[in-house]
């Protein structure tokens, strides 16, 4: 019954009597998110790949807010280092040095490294102007910098985020932290599987066994629907 209704819907889309976006309003945020992944990736994917793609949306924001904080901290630190030493400070230092009878050998070849704070400020401003957008996620989420920074710092502390990269196998941990800090609720593997099964029953999604022999199924958006969406 549902399959027949969706097949009729696809027919109406093909005949340009309705637009696909009109149908999408009937879907839940999770269903739309999963369809977004399959529509834009344009290839067969297993459940793990679909979930990791959803997590990638949040990883972009985690890195964005984390890098902003690191740049702001660096600018603040360098600004502190460049503060001048006033005469009163020099007198105090000399006074206490004499009192303690300390002697200092100054290496005249020592060079003070000049930090170009303006270049760091430009880098920070450019970064702020290029905030990444959610490409796949359709649900609500808490876009609060402090929450994303907590995830960023924990990922670095646990050495999951290295050189700006996160391994596919570690994205499960990222999802756990996103859920833990109340940023969003990343759908579980079981939830994604259930939604795909329902979408497949409705004819929006097709599947086939993974030729890799791991017992997994690969899912893709209905080719008829994809063809129409690309026109």
Automatic annotation (TrEMBL):
**Gene3D superfamilies of this UniProt entry?**
Winged helix-like DNA-binding domain superfamily/Winged helix DNA-binding domain
Which InterPro entries does this one have? WH-like_DNA-bd_sf, WH_DNA-bd_sf
Out of the domains of life, which is the source?
Archaea
What is the protein's given name? Uncharacterized protein
| Species annotation | Archaeoglobus profundus (strain DSM 5631 / JCM 9629 / NBRC 100127 / Av18)
């Amino acid at each position: 019954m549902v399959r027949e209704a969706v097949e009729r819907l696809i027919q109406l889309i093909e005949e340009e009597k309705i637009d696909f976006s009109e149908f999408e309003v009937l879907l839940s945020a999770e269903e739309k998110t999963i369809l977004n992944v399959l529509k834009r990736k344009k290839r067969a994917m297993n459940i793990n790949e679909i979930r990791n793609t959803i997590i990638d949306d949040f990883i972009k924001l985690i890195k964005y807010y984390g890098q902003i904080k690191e740049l702001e901290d660096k600018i603040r630190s360098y600004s502190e280092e460049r503060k001048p030493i006033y005469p009163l400070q020099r007198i105090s230092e000399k006074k206490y040095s004499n009192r303690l009878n300390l002697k200092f050998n100054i290496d005249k070849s020592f060079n003070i490294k000049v930090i170009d704070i303006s270049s760091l400020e430009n880098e920070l401003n450019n970064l702020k102007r290029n905030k990444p957008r959610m490409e796949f996620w359709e649900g609500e989420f808490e876009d609060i910098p402090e929450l994303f920074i907590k995830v960023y710092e924990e990922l670095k502390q646990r050495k999951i985020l290295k050189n700006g990269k996160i391994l596919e196998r570690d994205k499960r941990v990222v999802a756990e932290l996103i859920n833990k800090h109340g940023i969003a609720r990343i759908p579980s593997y079981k939830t994604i599987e259930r939604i795909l099964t329902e979408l497949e029953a409705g004819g929006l999604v097709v599947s086939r066994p993974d030729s890799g022999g791991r017992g997994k199924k690969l899912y893709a958006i209905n080719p008829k629907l994809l063809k129409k969406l690309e026109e």
